[in-house]
Write a structure and sequence with these properties.
Structural class: alpha/beta
Number of domains: 1
CATH class: Alpha Beta
Radius of gyration: 18 Å
Distance between the termini: 37 Å
Strand order of the largest sheet: 2-1-3-6-7
């Protein structure tokens, strides 16, 4: 499901831009000419349907500006190629990078929109060769594409999955190599990392424990937050959304989980800022 379809009746996210970046971020806009922590990530970092997302909670607890660069449905591509975000990470006291799924990023098999990373743009000649029976004009979203590819041929889908994971590792190494300062890698999910990670509906989908282990030496700290039973049971309690958007909101982490993420990040950041 695409979370950017949430309609009227939800929160006013006070969308803003930084510099020449074409990405609309969650506001209010923060100043970048004073010390700050930069938060990169996807829907969870953005805080869709959550009045006070974890970057703002961390800002309140630390007394240090937190700049929310989260992108709804965003993957690594949203900030890997944006010079404004690279510069923001360079200037930040610390950059927190939420782990996002490999499905929402361009790779050898398909291309996604550079800012709206869940949007499927086109299949490569290689993917068309592997899946000759698939009409790729049917798809607008990467998730729908992957669901169909796995349904058509679970065996051939393994090649796609291997490519997604390889591309993710390469892109994460690239992003981290461009940040000379301190970094925190953040796992924020309702499930713990696994060695299999085949669930397409998981968030983040397809990221294995071994993939995180490969990236961990490249960051200053790794923080893992798995939502508690209480946070998962709370469901959409405290979330703000239009009634028709309930199914989409139910897939997101709610306010209690955001509080748990902030509580894990604050002590990690205190030693770095």
């Amino acid at each position: 499901m695409s979370f950017d379809t949430l309609g009227p009746g939800g929160l006013d996210y006070l969308p803003c831009r930084y510099g020449a970046s074409k990405i609309l971020f969650r506001g209010p806009k923060r100043p970048l000419d004073q010390p700050y922590v930069a938060f990169f990530g996807g829907t969870t970092t953005y805080g869709k349907c959550v009045e006070t997302p974890f970057p703002e909670l961390v800002e309140q607890d630390l007394g240090l500006t937190g700049v929310n660069f989260g992108c709804v449905n965003g993957g690594i591509d949203a900030y890997a190629s944006d010079p404004v975000l690279r510069e923001a990470a360079i200037k930040a006291r610390v950059t927190v990078i939420q782990i996002t799924s490999p499905r929402n990023m361009s790779n050898r098999f398909y291309k996604v929109h550079p800012r709206r990373n869940d949007r499927f743009i086109e299949a490569s000649a290689l993917l068309r060769t592997i899946y000759r029976e698939v009409d790729f004009a049917e798809f607008n979203f990467a998730n729908h594409l992957l669901q169909r590819l796995r349904l058509v041929s679970p065996d051939r889908f393994h090649a796609v999955l291997d490519e997604l994971r390889t591309a993710w590792l390469a892109r994460m190494r690239l992003v981290l190599s461009q940040i000379p300062g301190k970094t925190i890698l953040l796992w924020a999910s309702d499930t713990a990392p696994s060695d299999v990670a085949l669930d397409l509906e998981a968030d983040p989908a397809f990221v294995t424990h071994s993939m995180i282990s490969e990236i961990e030496p490249l960051v200053t700290k790794y923080v893992k937050v798995v939502a508690s039973d209480a946070a998962r049971t709370a469901g959409t309690d405290g979330m703000v959304f239009a009634e028709m958007d309930g199914p989409a909101a139910a897939q997101m982490l709610g306010p209690m989980a955001h509080r748990e993420i902030a509580d894990a990040l604050v002590p990690a950041l205190q030693g770095l800022t």
